[in-house]
Design goal:
By secondary structure, this protein is α/β, with parallel strands linked by helices. The chain contains six helices and eight strands. The longest helix is centred in the N-terminal third of the chain and has 12 residues. InterPro entries: LRR_dom_sf (IPR032675).
Amino acid sequence: MCPSLVDVYIQVDEGFTDEELLGFRKLKQLKNFEIQTSPYLPSIISIRGGVIPLLQAHGVTLEQLYLTVEVTSEEVSVIIESCPNIHRLLLFLEMVCIDECFTLDDKIIEEACTRNSFKYLTKLKFRGCSNVSQKGIDFFLNEANPLSDIYLDDCGNVNPERMRTMAQEKHWNVKWNVED
């Protein structure tokens, strides 16, 4: 490993585990660390098993931390204690934002919603996802998801009136923005 690395970006796939993450403890000058997990795969990285041990080893040098793994309020406290010099902390569990993804379709969304509860999801943004229809959006519209903002632009066959009616019937406080 290159001990002089200061920026690390990890896009986690099925083969990346806490064990591999712990190998980054050798980086003595780490300043910017980003871990992105796929919403379509079950998370293999854990805060307690991989992220926190890494932060306890080198959190003092970190200035930016970007995580898309689930964290509890207790774990956020440990992260903050471990990283006293952090300037930017991004915990990105509340928004799904996908732009210009022509391969995204209702079936993929259905699989993602089957594997993940999206219980923290407050913002949903799809732009230029022409194969996403009303059926795909409907998978996100349930009582378990505390959605407050939905932004859809240039998505397949989406019925904004149907979504508004559903939100009114269920007394959801959702801000809609649907464009073609």
